[in-house]
């Protein structure tokens, strides 16, 4: 990743990133669209119940084709994408892998495709739409914190599904102070100011610690068996997926099927941003997968990550310096990111590997192995974690 190092420091405002919300948008997400769009909102709200009785497809068949060009403002476009993604995935996977439809009806396909095109992302559920713009505060005057957050729209299993997507929002909030710090660290490199870079790296330590602590809260309200057997497959896409080997036809958009990857936390911008900042370069295959996941991020986010990677190299600066404190500060960040990834691997063991062994013969068995899933997951994640660990720099040699 990365490429030629430049002397340009990314400015947050150029990428519409705010100092107090980071990759979350500066305004709170909308909960409602204008009344004209109530068929979408009502259907998305009813989705978990309609799936229970297997009536969701019927409701979609009655959905009118609405004019998406009547959406106004970024937040309305975001919300439209949230609800259409929930409805679209519920439609495709209502019957599990056994009963996939040949095409997605135009009343969902056309606006989903066009709204996503407008936002510069593929028409499929992504981490951004399921999590980052899909929340509200329980107490509007309370803090933007996990325990005060509620997910707006779910596909199924509301309690567990919501928690799964709320955890990343809190992680995002922890990460937010790191954005100006990484800019500061690169400024230090540009100015040859070791202290500026060191202070920034040191101030990032609590950020990374908090991210890991919150990741560790996943089990509080998201049960591994519910995740694995009841909602994971609803997030699946139609690329490299044996249940939809040719992809999916979006009726009214094209007669040819499209192939897109499903939702994955590998689309989280924060972690890839940290990799670029710390100069961590992943091996060919894992690196290519992570790079591909950037296509599912908002253009501003993927462009910012690329700009950080092209900015002055903190890693080169640290490795060329004989300031041991600077090196320790850098190494602390790298080791905390490694620890975050090690914890993530332990989580996958209980959320994917163990349930997959129990699920033999279950109706969604095949869907457990899509994407980088199944046995490929662990070697992928371990490679990414080991490359992170390998980025640790040796101590400065004595005089
Ligand atoms: C129950 C919770 C979770 C499960 C089961 C899970 C599962 C997975 C899986 C299977 C992958 C491999 C890529 C793929 O197949 O799509 C992955 C990658 C990834 N996940 Fe998670 N994930 C969970 C929670 C999280 C959270 C909360 C975050 C951060 C907010 C996160 C961040 C990542 C990242 C950054 C990657 C890419 C690999 C890396 O950079 O280390 N995951 N996850």
TrEMBL record:
InterPro entries: Indolamine_dOase, Trp/Indoleamine_2_3_dOase-like
Cellular component terms (Gene Ontology): cytoplasm
Any Pfam family matching the protein: IDO
Keywords: Dioxygenase, Heme, Immunity, Iron, Metal-binding, Oxidoreductase, Tryptophan catabolism
Chain positions recorded as heme b binding sites: 344
Any GO molecular function: indoleamine 2,3-dioxygenase activity
Family: Belongs to the indoleamine 2,3-dioxygenase family.
Protein name: IDO1 protein
Gene that this polypeptide is encoded by: IDO1
């Amino acid at each position: 990743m990365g490429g030629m190092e430049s002397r340009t420091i990314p400015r947050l405002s150029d990428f519409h990133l705010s100092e107090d919300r980071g990759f979350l948008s500066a305004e709170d997400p909308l909960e409602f669209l204008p009344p004209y769009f109530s068929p979408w909102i009502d259907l998305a709200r009813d989705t978990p119940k309609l799936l229970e009785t297997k009536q969701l497809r019927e409701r979609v068949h009655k959905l009118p084709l609405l004019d998406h060009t009547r959406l106004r403002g970024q937040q309305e476009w975001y919300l439209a994408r949230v609800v259409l993604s929930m409805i679209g995935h519920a439609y495709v996977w209502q019957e599990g892998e056994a009963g996939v439809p040949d095409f997605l009806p135009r009343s969902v396909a056309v606006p989903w495709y066009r709204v996503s095109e407008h936002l510069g992302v593929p028409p499929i559920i992504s981490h951004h739409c399921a999590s980052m713009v899909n929340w509200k505060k329980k107490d509007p005057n309370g803090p933007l914190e996990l325990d005060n957050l509620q997910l707006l729209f779910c596909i199924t299993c509301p309690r567990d599904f919501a928690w799964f997507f709320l955890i990343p929002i809190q992680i995002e909030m922890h990460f937010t102070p790191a954005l100006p710090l990484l800019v500061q660290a690169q400024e230090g490199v540009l100015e040859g100011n070791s202290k500026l870079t060191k202070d920034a790296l040191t101030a990032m330590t609590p950020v990374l610690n908090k991210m890991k602590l919150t990741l560790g809260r996943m089990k509080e309200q998201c049960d591994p068996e519910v995740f694995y057997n009841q909602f994971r497959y609803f997030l699946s896409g139609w690329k490299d997926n044996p249940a939809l080997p040719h992809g999916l036809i979006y009726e009214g958009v094209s007669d040819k099927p499209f192939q897109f990857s499903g939702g994955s936390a590998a689309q989280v911008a924060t972690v890839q941003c940290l990799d670029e900042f710390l100069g961590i370069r992943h091996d060919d295959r894992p690196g290519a997968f992570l790079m591909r996941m950037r296509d599912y991020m908002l253009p501003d986010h993927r462009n910012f990550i690329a700009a950080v990677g092209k900015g002055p190299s903190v890693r080169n600066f640290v490795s060329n310096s004989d300031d041991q404190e600077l090196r320790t500060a850098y190494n602390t960040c790298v080791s905390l990111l490694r620890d975050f990834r090690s914890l993530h691997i332990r989580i996958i063991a209980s959320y994917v590997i163990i349930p997959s062994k129990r699920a033999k013969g279950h109706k969604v068995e095949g869907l457990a192995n899509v994407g980088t899933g199944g046995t490929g997951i662990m070697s992928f994640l371990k490679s990414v974690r080991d490359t992170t660990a390998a980025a640790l720099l040796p101590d400065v040699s004595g005089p």
